[in-house]
Amino acid sequence: MSDARLRAAEVVEAHVQTFFAGHSVEVMDCDLGPERQEEPVGLRVLVVGPGPRGDSWAYVTAGCWAADEDGRGLEFVMTAHACDERFVELMAMLACYHCAGHRLDLEHSMPIGEPWVLGSACDHLLISLPYLHGPDLEHCPLPGGHARILWALPVTTAEIEFRRNHGHEALEQLFDEAEIVPTDPFRASVA
Fold this sequence. Notes:
The protein is α+β, with helices and mostly antiparallel strands. It is built from 5 helices and 8 strands; from the N terminus they run αββββαββαββαα.
């Protein structure tokens, strides 16, 4: 990993640890296997335990930003009901998808290819603003640029189809009206 990439990942880690002061934060290096070692190099997932900011677990990538050349880039946060290696793997999968040329951004989605957790109807990740954490987590200044940390919200195929037909804002309105619990893997689809 280059010095610039290492420094960017360290700054993202420090930003996350500062934001989640009072929470446990474990840094997990991701072994993506020999066929994916180059994308993204040095990826880490920060596993944030429950604490003063909330009773859920948060999983945050550190290393996606370094794949962008213009000094601006994305990292991702997913909030879950439990501590599980499955969520670390999903974040690594999301990072690989993003860095392998798919270039996710706000209002994009990614198919997981299987349920978020066994028995869940959620089988996609919707990239949205980090509503559970706000702009203080979202905006992370870095040397020579800045990272934006966006939310990877597990959603259903029907919800993705609704968004395609009616737009992202209309889907978020349905989420608000239904008062979904975004960390509930067994929540009913709103579409």
